[in-house]
C-alpha cells in the first residue's frame, strides 16, 4: 500500500503535497466565480480560517477568465473545477489555475481529454482526477452490479492509466462517495494500485451536524491508515465551517499541531453557569490564536480544577462567578462576566 509518506510529491502553486508533506486543507467557494469581488472576499476569509488550497467552480467561460484577476488578489493555490467542457479546462489553465479538477469520463472523447492534458503539460500544473459515486460509468456499474468500492477504484485507476498513457503523471486522485464505508474501502484499494497523492473526503456528507459526523468517521478511518495527502470536509454550511472541522479532525488524529485545543465537560445537575454558551464563546474567541495550548472549559467549581488538570489553562463557572485554573491549580476567582476577557488576556500573553 502506498501511504502518504511514499506518494509522489506534487506541487500546487507554492505548496507541495505527497511524500510525507503536511496534509493540506481544502475548501470550495460558493460564490459565482465570475463575481470576482465576492469570490476574492470569500477566499480571503477562508484563508484566514486556515484554508490552504481553494477550489472554484468554472461552469462558463466568464468564470474561467475571472481566475486571472482572482489569482492576483489571493495568497493560496487556486484549483479550477471543470465538468464536461474541455475548452473551459484549457481556458482555466491559461488564466492561471494552479491545478484543474476534471473527471475524464465526462470530458468526452480521447482527443478532448488529450487536449486538456497537453495544456496542463505545457503549463506544468497538476490534474486532479475526480471520481464520484454519483457519476460512475454505466459499464462499471453494470460490471459490479451497482455502485461499489471496487467499481470506484477501477474507474479511478482506469482514468489514471489513460492520462499516464498520454505521457503525463502530475496527477492527484480523488475518489468520493457519501457512503462512508464504501469511500474508505475505495481509498484502500486505490492506495494499493498507485502512488499518486490522494485528496480525500466524504462527498455530499450533509449538514453541519450530520456532515461533520460522517466526515470525522470517514476521514478518521482513511487518514489513520496513512492514506491521504489533502482533505476537504464537505458540508452544507458556510465553507469556513469546513476549515474548522478539518483542522479539528487532523488534530484529533495527531496529524497537525498548533492552535488552541478547547476541551469542555458535559453538562450535569451541578452546573450553575450556561456551559454550552460559555464553551462556544471560548471556541470562537481563540480561533485566531496560533499557540499550541490546551484550554479547558468546566461548568463546576467543585470538580473543575481536577478535571482540567491535563489542560494548560482553564476556566470553571459557578453561580455568578468562576475561577481561572492553570495546570489544575486555582489561580484566582473572578466575576462571571470577566471569565472570557481574563482567559483571552492570559492566552495572548502565554509563556508556557
Please characterize this protein's 3D structure.
The protein has 352 residues and is an alpha/beta fold. It folds into 2 domains: 10-252, Dihydropteroate synthase-like (TIM Barrel, Alpha-Beta Barrel); 261-348, 2-Layer Sandwich (Sulfite Reductase Hemoprotein, domain 1), CATH 3.30.413.10. The chain has helices at residues 36-49, 61-72, 86-94, 104-107, 110-123, 138-144, 149-165, 180-191, 208-224, 239-252, 275-285, 304-307, 339-348, and strands at residues 10-12, 15-17, 24-28, 53-57, 78-81, 99-102, 127-132, 171-176, 198-200, 230-231, 261-264, 294-298, 313-317, 321-326, 329-335. Helix 1 crosses helix 2, helix 8 runs parallel beside helix 9 and helix 9 runs parallel beside helix 10 (239-252). The radius of gyration is 23 Å and the shape is elongated. The two termini are 41 Å apart. The model has no long low-confidence stretch (mean pLDDT 88).
Amino acid at each position: 500500500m502506498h501511504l502518504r509518506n511514499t506518494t509522489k510529491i506534487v506541487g500546487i502553486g507554492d505548496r507541495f503535497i505527497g511524500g510525507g508533506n503536511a496534509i493540506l486543507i481544502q475548501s470550495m467557494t460558493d460564490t459565482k466565480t465570475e463575481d470576482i469581488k465576492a469570490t476574492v472576499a470569500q477566499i480571503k476569509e477562508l484563508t484566514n480560517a486556515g484554508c490552504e488550497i481553494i477550489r472554484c467552480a468554472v461552469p462558463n467561460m466568464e468564470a474561467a477568465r475571472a481566475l486571472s484577476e482572482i489569482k492576483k488578489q489571493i495568497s493560496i493555490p487556486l484549483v479550477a473545477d471543470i465538468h464536461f467542457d474541455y475548452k473551459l479546462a484549457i481556458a482555466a489553465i491559461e488564466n492561471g489555475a494552479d491545478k484543474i479538477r476534471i473527471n475524464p469520463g465526462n470530458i468526452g472523447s480521447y482527443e478532448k481529454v488529450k487536449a486538456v492534458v497537453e495544456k496542463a503539460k505545457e503549463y506544468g500544473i497538476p490534474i486532479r482526477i475526480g471520481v464520484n459515486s454519483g457519476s460512475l460509468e454505466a459499464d462499471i456499474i453494470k460490471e459490479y452490479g451497482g455502485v461499489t468500492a471496487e467499481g470506484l477504484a477501477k474507474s479511478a485507476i482506469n482514468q489514471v492509466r489513460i492520462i499516464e498513457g498520454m505521457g503525463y503523471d502530475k496527477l492527484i486522485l480523488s475518489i468520493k462517495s457519501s457512503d462512508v464505508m464504501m469511500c474508505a474501502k475505495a481509498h484502500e484499494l486505490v492506495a494499493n494500485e498507485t502512488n499518486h497523492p490522494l485528496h480525500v473526503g466524504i462527498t455530499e456528507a450533509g449538514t453541519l451536524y450530520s456532515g461533520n459526523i460522517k466526515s470525522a468517521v470517514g476521514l478518521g478511518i482513511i487518514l489513520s491508515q496513512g492514506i491521504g495527502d489533502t482533505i476537504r470536509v464537505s458540508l452544507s454550511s458556510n465553507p469556513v465551517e469546513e476549515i474548522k472541522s478539518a483542522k479539528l479532525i487532523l488534530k484529533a488524529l495527531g496529524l497537525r499541531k498548533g492552535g488552541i485545543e478547547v476541551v469542555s465537560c458535559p453538562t450535569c445537575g451541578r452546573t450553575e453557569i450556561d456551559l454550552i454558551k460559555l464553551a462556544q464563546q471560548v471556541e470562537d474567541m481563540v480561533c485566531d490564536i496560533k499557540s499550541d495550548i490546551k484550554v479547558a472549559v468546566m461548568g463546576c467549581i467543585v470538580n473543575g480544577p481536577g478535571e482540567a488538570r491535563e489542560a494548560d489553562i482553564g476556566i470553571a463557572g459557578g453561580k455568578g462567578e468562576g475561577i481561572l485554573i492553570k495546570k489544575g491549580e486555582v489561580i484566582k476567582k473572578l466575576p462571571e462576566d470577566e471569565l472570557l476577557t481574563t482567559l483571552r488576556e492570559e492566552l495572548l500573553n502565554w509563556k508556557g
